[in-house]
Amino acid sequence: MTAIPKNPRILIIDPTDNPTLKAGLQRHYGMMVNQQTSGRAALELLRRVKPDLIVLNAHLSDLPAAALLAEINAQKLTAPIILVGGNGETTRANFDDKKIVGWLNQPFEPTELAALIQSALERPLPNSDLVLTKRAELIEANQQLTNRVQQMQTLAEIGQSVTSQLELEEVLRRVAKAAVSLTHADESYLLLVDEASGNLYLRAEANLGVEEVKNFWVKVSDSIAGQVARTGEPVIISRDSSSLKVKTGLVVYALVNVPVKVGQKVIGVLGVDNRTQRRTFSLEDQMLLSALADWAAIAIQNARLYAATSALSRDLELVNEVSRLVSSTLDVEQIPRLLVKHTAEIIGAECGSLALLDKERGGVVFQLAYDGEGNELTSLRNFIMPLGEGIVGLVAQTGLPHIVNNVQSDPGWSPVADRLTGFVTHKIIAVPLIAEGEVVGVMELLNKKEGNFDQGDLQLLSLVAAAAAGAIQNARQYDTLQKTNEALQRAQEQRIAAERWAVLGKAAGSLAHRINNTTTLVPIAVQHLRELLQPAELPPELRQEIETNLERIERNTRYTVDLAVALLRRFRQHPAKAHNVNELINRAISLVEIPKNIKLVCHLDPKLPPVDISDLLVDALIELISNALRVMEVEGGVLRIASFKAGSHIAIQITDSGPGIAAENLDQVFDLFFTTYPQGLGFGLWWVKTFLEQQHGQITVESRPNEGTTFTITLPGSPASLPSA
């Protein structure tokens, strides 16, 4: 080793003047520094001064560094040279000079240059073998460092690529591909831990054969990957293929397995192997694979979180859609139809049903149920499942949700519904519909298409059920309010009808009395006039004209009297009492004369209960029958009279086969004084409607031109005769 001069002379040849560098070397290291920015000036100086070491910038412009080196060699100067701005490979290619003992990349600190100068001055002469060896070692070390930097850059790029992807399958595929690229292995595989069994299953691979990929599961108890999953420690193995096959199931020469961890939890194993290459893996390969596994763990967690968030977002969107659908109607009958099918689609179930609680009947009543083809199971509609029986009855009784993924093994399951419908149930998830703290029904889904029902399905179905329960409760309250309003409206209409009937009756009585008083003398006066004219000699034409006018006066007087009688009779107060409707119909038929060209057909239900009504119903029936006969008197036809039960009401229908009522007149037939019959008063149908309303009944009309007309009377049944609810 050569002794370092006490004050070594250093020549810096650099186009950039750096006073700080020069001052630092002189002040801190006692070096005598001469700095030249021109190659030509430096060459002149070298001819006069022999420096102990030269620092040469590789990028000189006025005299290229290579040319300057040639001049130095020509002068046979032996001072070692440190090259600035090059690396090992560049130096060998462009500056093949044995006097170059080191190099620095720019920028650099004065301390780095000082250390390199001191190291160079301690060495033997540049031409010795020791200098060449050190140079080779330095080049190799620099190359390794460069390779390591490149590996780290590649790993960082791979990590960025992997973690930027949010689709899980793509993440796993990129990790497997990157494992082969980083370690130069033949194959790679990524195994994930199955939460249910704890074993490993293949999720991604690169270059593995088809047979190896198919149904690839690894037990954690007797495999190398399982050992890594259990211990959380990496494994490197290189041995003869026969012994390695026992542990892996694959014939490979060497392998590396590293854990994929989230915190301290192992979620998988990343592995590479060489099957064709006779090459072992190094600790550096293990380090790179472990770093990749760390990136993979982050990416997998991100992808899983993204998938879960996306699924939740999608499910919530569908739940909102279902909620919007069921909340958009106040029809209790329509809500199950909107609810069941959409919810089954959300969760991936084959079908479902909805049942509502009926406390009085002690069970839940099925409102709607579908089979696997989307067809309604009508045989289950209105079927009652007692509380506590079957999954539905159990949920309704306890108010707690229930999941059964094997109904045959559950003691609470009841096969009654399956026997009734022919449907085969395998899996059930059922949740209560709770509104205002009370169970109002149960919603269930059957036979999940993929996998089993789980807590995620339960949470989602519960959200739907909450929206449905509120909608059903709102619909029920609306229905109750609507019925109450209708009852109040009917009571108001009946009160108004009764008052109107009383007013009309009083008016009719007064009018009839006035008519009788004013018309009683008219027939007497007509007869007296005839008697006075009898002895008088009058031309026959004049006598005939007088007689015609007297007959017209007499006829109109009788019409007026008849109208007064009708008013008195039809507005008299007849108390309502229980009547057999069929008897009243037969009495009305007996009081009208039916022409021979009209056929009477009667269908009277003999089991009708009695009806509380005034016997003026006979007059109403006579009015309707007479009108029907009148429209058929020329052409003839068929008169049909029927009586039957219509729910809690009694109905009477009178149908003719006449010409029908014109569409523009259909809405006016019950108006007072409206008539299309020349001799009609426009009083009959108006009175019929008024009378029936006063008796809490109704009348409607249906008619089509040339197809006949049907009048339908509906009367409330007697309370004692109505079926109990």
CATH superfamily name of the largest domain? GAF domain
- What Rg is obtained from the alpha carbons, in whole angstroms? 55 Å
* Largest beta sheet: strand ordering: 8-7-6-11-10-9
The biggest beta sheet reads: 6 strands, antiparallel
CATH class category of the largest domain: Alpha Beta
The number of distinct structural domains comes to: 5
Q: What is the 3D shape?
A: elongated
Integer average pLDDT: 77
The proportion of strand residues reads: 15-25%
List the SSEs and their pairings.
Elements: E1 9-13, H1 19-29, E2 32-36, H2 39-48, E3 53-57, H3 65-74, E4 81-84, H4 88-94, E5 100-104, H5 110-122, H6 129-163, H7 168-183, E6 187-193, E7 200-206, H8 210-213, E8 217-218, H9 224-231, E9 235-238, H10 241-248, E10 254-262, E11 265-274, H11 283-327, H12 334-347, E12 349-358, E13 363-369, E14 384-386, H13 390-398, E15 402-404, H14 416-421, E16 428-435, E17 438-448, H15 455-519, H16 521-533, H17 540-570, E18 577-579, H18 581-590, E19 598-604, E20 611-613, H19 617-632, E21 637-646, E22 649-656, H20 684-694, E23 698-704, E24 708-716
Parallel strand pairs: 1-2, 1-3, 3-4, 4-5, 19-21
Antiparallel strand pairs: 6-7, 6-11, 7-8, 9-10, 10-11, 12-13, 12-17, 13-14, 15-16, 16-17, 18-20, 21-22, 22-24, 23-24
Helix pairs in contact: 2-3, 6-7, 6-11, 7-11, 11-12, 11-15, 12-15, 15-17, 15-20, 16-17, 18-19, 19-20
